[in-house]
Specification:
The protein has 33 helices and 27 strands. α8 runs parallel beside α13. The radius of gyration is 28 Å and the shape is globular. The termini are far apart. The relative contact order is 0.15.
């Protein structure tokens, strides 16, 4: 290899952890002569890919960043006043640098292990408090995917509340005001049709709702910027015993009467304009607030306040609503991913600016909008509405002529039908920008606007007096303290220090694939030519994004051996749902709309059955064998039983048990013989790339978790992306989008969270044909090395006939409950004392942990983790042999906080040293959990999901 070839492959060896000599040592431990021999014994030959992936060769990080800079310049960063739910803003530099660009925030995992997640949990509690205060509703979640899908979640929640029996729907209708964002209407219809909801569009002023309606949606301010008083309409809906959701704007709510005070049951929308870049559509945190009566049904995660084992305040995810999909086919939502990183940015934005600062931003926006409107009116333009916040709509003679003129000047307006032109101002708009708009729209023979200026005393009288906010918001000290950069920087760091992230140690979560999120993949996300592009900007201004989208789609098709791809679904569960809609539409196109039975193995991810129900399908469960494989005989029987009604099957490959099932081709053949389609859950794609592919195995559609296999960071619980790839016969049924002239969108933006597609594009380009395959091989190597090191002391479940696992494996902890009264949770909490995040707990088998090291971890880190588990095994053995007490031992009291270890009193039979520093390596890099074991039950019995009064903190400290 020449020096230059070596440079082009440098990223491969930076992404993959073990180097050559470590690889040899690891293979020796496993008992295999080579990596190839190990792979041959692990992956069944019948499903192997017999040719190299048709994707480009690897390039260096430096070359990649130059390439991406060149592509970015194909995007045009015009001044954009399109609005429609997406607004430019000013990301405070202290948040950009210390949260958005900080691996201590973007590499965190979902806060299942609360004791080492207190920082992001506090920030998400701030987000919930911010949303509750601004919307005037008490119950909020810690973010959803986007505004349109949040509205659909509200619709579905209302539907399920008033239609308990889905086989006999008594209230099928949902009213939607016509002046709602087009993308929201599009997604509502997509979500409504499969479950039997009838969406009725109309004018709220003249609508009459009877008992056949279960709910209604209005937008505040509406699609054309008008601020409407919905009080009478809301009362009418309530008289019909139905519910109301208002989609709304958080910045506007600093000045407007909040939805809760108007009587709305739910308020939702996007927190994007609170310091989150446009990014061609995402990722952006949606918010969702509801009346208290919906606390058992609210979708997504709720962060709640509880106490720890010492009686001190501690936060954790509250209620079973935090993961609805554990209810499987009885779930009312399949929401699994939040937009935690972006919710944290929005929360920090509110903390930094505080209530007065937010109000000032809103006033600046609306004062400029008022001044622009009045000047245009004085020039002869007709403004559509009298009451508005940031958006005005002009009636013009020739909107096409204005469009040509505006784009020539580097300006984007929104163009409605009937010669209406919309102009939405935002935080980034300046007086100079307003002047540019006026000069562009200056009517012939009218007065010159060169002397235009705006007085801050211009008043806010375009906000209706009866809807002006009088109630306080963000009164908690956290929103009134950290307003200097020094204070803010330290607050962010203080929270970061409470959280274990990938920059602390490996996070070996089976099925979640917490791999390296390389800096070179992340850096371009901050560049203006990617971050400041509006999702509905004209196509000729988004050529850079179009190139990335096209090429990434082609690479993913090559990797999956499929023919077409949609990058729209903005989470894995959203991808499942989109893929199932594709199958449903395919059957309907063939006159077989009655095919609604979806077979799902008992071992499947909980989102699988939840998604199937949302797609209007009936779930039939297929049994598993003792070794974790799908029971083929049971499958044959069920396929035959439901042959005429069979829609398809959902399978995960390798299986959820971490094994490549040899019978997979037989399984796909059985389904096809009965006229069904095969859906593959792409959660374990990290074990397929370059070695096999869904299309080779016999699948028809597959979603890909880009936040797993393709290196998008987990961000503390999101963002995620779940594109779907399909075979040619399914391509016509991929999601559409109203902005592209078609319908049936599953997400608000046409390409979902488009900005983070750059990460996966970079991952593929820098690893290239050789590196993507090598990553899979090393994922298998690392998993089997850990398996080999642990199998003498722990029982490993579900290996193949050669004793190998795939990229992950399951360790059975159930025997210790009988022998030492130790449970999986005890081991998980004790791992924190050793500086590690626990692997996936009790999934897919209760009482076990599932370990997936990924290819990114080097041998030394794998050894540290194995050493920790082996040391814990000795601690369990001490209990088994009577050398340690069954109640008073390091596992039962884990994790041990710094406060507990340094307290004057120590009552335990084991030593402080054993509690805090059980192995030598910990002394060099001790991570201290910030709270002791959290009491979940206390928090659920005393549900608090916003920041408590300051007195409660004082009581906790006392």
């Amino acid at each position: 290899m020449s020096l230059f070839e070596k440079q082009n492959s440098e990223f491969i060896h930076r992404h993959i952890g073990p180097h050559e000599s470590e690889t040899r040592q690891m293979l020796k431990t496993i008992g295999e002569p080579s990596l190839e021999a190990l792979v041959n014994k692990t992956v069944p030959p019948a499903i192997r890919m017999n040719k190299a992936l048709n994707i480009p060769a690897s390039i260096s990080e430096h070359e990649y960043l130059q390439l991406l800079k060149d592509i970015s310049l194909k995007n045009k960063t015009y001044k954009t006043y399109i609005g429609q739910g997406y607004y430019d803003n000013i990301v405070p530099s202290v948040i950009l640098r210390n949260v958005f660009e900080n691996p201590g925030w973007y590499t965190q995992y979902t806060p299942y292990q609360a004791e080492i997640s207190q920082g992001r949990l506090e920030s998400l509690l701030n987000f919930q408090t911010m949303v509750a205060d601004l919307t005037g509703l008490p119950l909020t979640n810690a973010s959803l995917l986007d505004e349109a899908t949040a509205a659909a979640e509200a619709m579905t929640m209302f539907f399920n509340t008033l239609n308990r029996d889905h086989d006999h729907i008594t209230r099928p209708k949902f009213f939607v005001d016509v002046e709602t964002f087009p993308q929201t209407k599009d997604v509502l219809v997509t979500r409504a049709v499969p479950v039997g909801i009838e969406v009725v569009f109309g004018d709220y002023k003249t609508a009459t709702l009877d008992k056949s309606y279960f709910g209604a949606l209005v937008q505040y301010p509406n699609d054309k910027g008008a601020i409407e008083d919905y009080r009478n309409f809301i009362n009418k809906v309530h008289e019909a015993e139905a519910y109301v959701v208002m989609t709304t704007d958080l910045l506007a709510l600093t000045l407007l009467t909040p939805p809760g005070e108007l009587g709305a049951d739910v308020a939702c929308g996007s927190a994007q304009r609170f310091g989150v870049p446009l990014g061609f559509g995402g990722p952006h945190a949606a918010f969702f607030a509801a009346k208290d009566e919906f606390k058992r049904n609210i979708p997504g995660r709720i962060i709640g306040v509880s106490i720890d084992a010492q009686g001190d305040r501690a936060l954790r995810m509250a209620l079973q609503t935090r993961e609805q999909h554990i209810k499987r086919e009885k779930a009312t939502s399949n929401i699994c991913t939040a937009q935690a990183l972006l919710a944290n940015m929005a929360a920090m934005y509110a903390v930094f600016h505080g209530p007065a600062g937010l109000k000032d931003i809103a006033k600046r926006v609306t004062v400029l909008t008022n001044a622009l409107a009045e000047e245009l009116q004085s020039e002869g333009y007709e403004i559509l509405h009298d009451n508005f916040f940031d958006t005005i709509v002009l009636k013009v003679e020739d909107s096409a002529a204005i469009k040509v003129k505006a784009e020539a000047a580097g300006i984007n307006f929104r163009y409605y039908s009937n010669n209406l032109v919309g102009i939405s101002l935002d935080e980034s708009t300046t007086l100079s920008d307003v002047l540019d708009i006026l000069l562009l729209l200056d009517q012939p023979n009218e007065h010159n606007v060169a002397g235009f200026s705006v007085s801050e005393d211009a008043g806010l009288y375009h906000l209706p007096t009866g809807l002006t906010r009088t109630s306080p918001f963000l009164t908690h000290p956290v929103f009134n303290t950290h307003h200097s950069e020094t204070e803010m920087m330290r607050y962010i760091k203080q929270l970061e220090n409470k959280d274990l992230s990938l920059n602390t140690s490996m996070i070996s979560l089976g099925s979640c694939t917490m791999k390296l999120n390389a800096a070179s993949e992340m850096i371009p996300l901050s560049w203006a030519h990617w971050s400041k592009i509006h999702p509905f900007a004209p196509a000729d201004q988004t050529q850079g994004y179009q190139q990335i989208i096209t090429e990434l789609g082609e690479y993913l098709c090559q990797i999956t051996a499929f023919d077409a791809c949609s990058l729209q679904p903005n989470s894995g569960a959203q991808g499942e749902y989109a893929g199932l809609l594709v199958i449903r539409d395919y059957h309907e196109s063939r006159g077989e709309g009655h095919r609604k039975v979806m077979l799902i193995p008992i071992s499947a991810h909980g989102t699988n059955p939840a998604s199937a129900v949302m797609a209007g399908m009936k779930v039939v469960v297929v049994k598993a064998l003792e070794n974790g494989y799908i029971d083929v005989e049971d499958l044959k029987a069920k396929a035959a039983q439901y042959s005429k009604e069979l829609s398809g099957i959902m399978i995960t490959y390798p299986s959820t048990y971490g094994v490549y099932e040899e019978t997979v081709k037989e399984i796909t053949d059985i389904i096809h013989q009965h006229g069904g389609q095969v859906y593959m859950d792409g959660a374990n794609m990290n074990a397929q790339v370059g070695l096999t592919a869904p299309g080779l195995i016999g699948a028809d559609v597959c979603h890909l978790n880009l936040h797993k296999t393709f290196a998008i960071p987990h961000g503390g619980g999101g963002p995620g992306m779940g594109p779907i790839c399909v075979k040619q016969h399914l391509a016509p049924y991929l999601p559409g989008h109203v902005s592209l002239g078609s319908k049936s969108a599953v997400s608000a933006a046409p390409y979902g969270s488009a900005s983070i597609l750059l990460i996966s594009y970079g991952y593929i380009r820098m690893l290239g044909q050789e590196g993507t395959k090598l990553a899979t091989e090393y994922a298998i190597l690392n998993a089997n090395y850990m398996r080999a090191r642990l199998q003498e002391e722990y029982e490993i479940l579900y290996t193949n006939h050669n004793g190998q696992c795939a990229h992950e494996f399951i360790v059975d902890l159930r025997p210790f409950k009988k022998s030492a009264e130790i449970e999986a949770e005890d081991v998980a909490k004790r791992l924190m004392d050793y500086g590690f995040h626990a692997p996936t707990m009790s999934f897919p088998v209760p009482g076990t942990i599932m370990i997936e090291p990924t290819e990114s971890e080097d041998k030394a880190e794998l050894d540290r983790f194995c050493d920790a588990l082996l040391s814990i095994r000795e601690e369990i053995r001490a209990i088994e042999e009577g050398k340690a007490d069954k109640k008073d031992n390091p596992l039962k009291h884990a994790p041990h906080t710094q406060f507990v270890i340094t307290a004057d009193e120590w009552k335990h039979a084991y030593t402080r040293q054993q509690a805090a520093f059980p192995l030598a390596y910990i002394r060099a890099n001790k991570f201290w959990p910030s709270v002791a074991r959290v009491n979940n039950t206390h928090g659920d019995r005393n549900l608090i999901c916003t920041c408590e009064p300051v007195s409660s903190y004082a009581e906790a400290e006392a």
